[in-house]
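Open question from group meeting: does this chain pack into something compact, or does most of it stay loose? Before anyone orders reagents, we agreed to write out a predicted structure and look at it together. Recording both the input and the output here so the notebook holds the full record.
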Amino acid sequence: MPTAPHIALDSAGAAAVDGRHIRALTFQSVRMEYLRRVLGELSLAAAGSRALVVGSGRGLLARSLAQLGFEVVAADSSPAATALALDADDGSGVTYLTTPAEKLDLPDASFDLVYCADTLEITERPDAVLVEAARVLRPGAAFVYDTVNRTPVSRLIYLGAFQAFPGTRIMPRGRNAARRLRRPEELAESLDRAGLSAKDISAFKPRDVRSLVRATRGRRRGTLTDDQLPELVDMVLEPESSPVVTYLGYAVRRA
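Structure tokens returned:
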């Protein structure tokens, strides 16, 4: 019988299946598409602006923001993730920092954009994350995020397929929990309490859910590499749809 793959987050091991990195790769295209839309709506120029990526993992999103012209800080609570990000960097100019999202080691009102990735559906203290994001944002600056809705379908995918079912498991058990998934209206209330005015949400999903199944199974079997997954999964924005599983959104820091 084939050996079950080693599931490990923030692992450089060749045999490891890192669901966090898989997620970052497959979300990258919609994250950047949505960010460009937000920058356009707010008339925010990258040149001369500072951006912070919270939950930056191996730094893929942070380096893409640097390529747009932002001065970027990439923050993650995992020292292993920070080490992998530094190893992957090719001179982008990104500053990498190990610090928890709930208590950022950064000064007040120092960023024009904060992107919160791989965090709101993981933390037990989402209000603390939002308060910290608001604290480091300048008035009128943008807070952008993606997260997971709390629905029967999202439970099936994130609690079942991604971390329990043997054929499609890519996350350690306990990485996601139903209590940490939040509906858009609940998150909007938390944003408001933190001093952030919610402006928009947009659903996103695989173009064909069968491709997601093929991708996760292929990655587990070792017949697909991480770099092959984004094209196969092909995430697409659905701004006019109610989010069933994953959604992006943004808010603005009130004065």
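Observations to bring back to the group:
The first helix runs from residue 19 to 42.
DSSP finds eight helices and ten strands in the chain.
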